[in-house]
Design brief:
- This protein is an alpha/beta fold.
- It has helices spanning 22-27, 68-75, 110-122, 142-147, 167-176, 190-202, 236-239, 250-258, 261-279; strands spanning 2-11, 14-20, 33-37, 45-53, 58-64, 81-82, 84-89, 100-106, 126-133, 151-156, 163-164, 183-187, 207-210, 226-229, 232-235, 242-244.
- Helix 4 (142-147) links the parallel strand 9 (126-133) and strand 10 (151-156).
Length: 280
């Protein structure tokens, strides 16, 4: 059993949890993920490693409440235990040799971008962190990004905090101002990663994106997380989750991700109703 050591809401729908998992913490690295079950009879869901503490033996996860399992997790408290916490899975972020990098995060995807920025910053790279949110109330990890970057740009769609506009606008302005990037790393909603990749392709800048499709086993057996990359079928769980953004078929990935929205909403509604009955 994996004890929840710390829990906090970063905004109304995003939760950060620190979980005791010594074996996972010992081997975890930026870019990797875990698969957990909240309860013995629960579903398996993948969540990216948001941070880790090898000495303490803990792994931090950050999730948005969108489906049944995340609704259950939202109601769990410090001291409760998760049934399963398997990992680390997937390939770690390759940072060797990178001296100047733009790390672009969108929404809750910023939680995945943060450990990447932190790892690069600690290795001595110049890191421009560009993070975007719909509005002020949804901004997360600002202090953490500020400490893990050389320069931080916070964007909101409505201009209620930071700069108003899109992350691609800031990125292009920095490129036009003369910033020379070895690589751009984009993590967030599929449309955001698509348009970042289209922009960087125009300027011939290598771009890595982190793909988080539906997956079940995390070993490449179920095929649920398949993607088309460079015309070939890849599996996010074993071949990724990071891929060359210029080669990913984003339109296909967006269509596939939309297939599960109604199911997730229904699962969350059922979980909410279950907790309401328990309260009554």
């Amino acid at each position: 059993m994996y004890k929840i050591l710390k829990k906090e809401f970063l905004n109304p729908t995003v939760v950060r949890m620190e979980v005791s998992a010594p074996e996972v913490a010992r081997r975890a690295d930026a870019g990797q993920f875990i698969i957990l079950r909240a309860t013995e009879d629960g579903e398996r869901i993948p969540l990216t490693v948001a941070d880790y503490d090898r000495e303490k033996g803990s792994v931090t996860i950050i999730f948005q409440v969108v489906g049944g399992t995340t609704e259950i997790l939202r109601h769990m408290e410090e001291g409760d235990c998760l049934a399963d916490f398997a990992g680390p899975l997937g390939r770690k972020t390759e940072t060797e040799g990178l001296k100047s990098v733009a790390v672009v995060g969108g929404g809750v995807g910023s939680a995945i971008a943060y450990p990447v920025a932190k790892k690069l910053h600690e290795s001595g790279a110049y890191v421009d962190a560009i993070v975007g949110f719909r509005t002020r109330d949804l901004v997360i990890l600002e202090d953490e990004f500020r400490a893990a970057s050389s320069e931080l740009h916070v964007m909101t769609d409505d201009g209620t905090y930071g700069e108003r506009g899109l992350v691609t606008e800031v990125l292009e302005n920095l490129i036009l101002a003369g910033r020379k990037y070895d690589e751009v790393i984009a993590i967030g909603p599929l449309p955001m990663m698509k348009f970042v990749s289209l922009l960087t392709k125009k300027y011939n800048i290598k771009t890595v994106v982190s793909m988080n499709p539906i997956m079940i086993d995390g070993t490449g057996m179920c095929g649920g997380c398949r993607l088309t990359v460079g015309g070939e079928t890849k599996f996010a769980c074993v071949d990724g989750p990071e891929f060359d953004g210029h080669l990913v078929d984003f339109d296909e990935a967006i269509r596939r991700s939309a297939m599960y929205r109604d199911f997730e909403a229904h699962a969350r509604e059922e979980a909410c109703n279950l907790f309401k009955k328990e309260v009554e």
